[in-house]
Amino acid sequence: MNFSLFSGCASSGSSISVQRLAENSTTDISGDWNDTDSRLVSKAMIEQVLAEAWLENFIHDNQRKPVLIVGRIKNRSHEHINVQTFVKDIERALINSGEVDFVASTDERQQVRDERIDQALNASEDTQKGPGQETGADFMVIGSIASIIDQDGGEKVKFYQINLELINLENNRKVWIGEKKIKKSVSQSGVTF
């Protein structure tokens, strides 16, 4: 579906064309990290983490699914990346797998704790949710997104390396390390980057 929009301040004859795309379509205009990269990397990493021995070992030893939390994913790339979008892709894929349970992040927990304080003051006793009932995480996912650029004139190769680690919160043991790499060739004639 194409739309042409005209603005009163635009120069005569100029127009903007907008085309709606399917949210899961593969689009790459600039060659920078984008929603497709985030979705594909999170899917690949989740497949890796759920296929490793740590999961079966934990379930065998504890007779329950492990509880995870996503910690800090650092952007060490050359460009601005909204890491929160990537974190949500990881959380969604892990939760929807049905293989693990998840607890809220630090910021989300603070909002919930504030709500419990409000309930203690304002909600009826039979509907209040009291403190001390939170589920603790067994493992934390941490990681980084790094990049390397190789450029000559109008030719550029962008290389991204995404590393994730799963750390046992009880003893700080790393039980899984995953890696995904993306390489993109970007060329633009007549324009320097």
Automatic annotation (TrEMBL):
<protein>
    <recommendedName>
        <fullName>Penicillin-binding protein activator LpoB</fullName>
    </recommendedName>
</protein>
<dbReference type="InterPro" id="IPR014094">
    <property type="entry name" value="LpoB"/>
</dbReference>
<dbReference type="Pfam" id="PF13036">
    <property type="entry name" value="LpoB"/>
</dbReference>
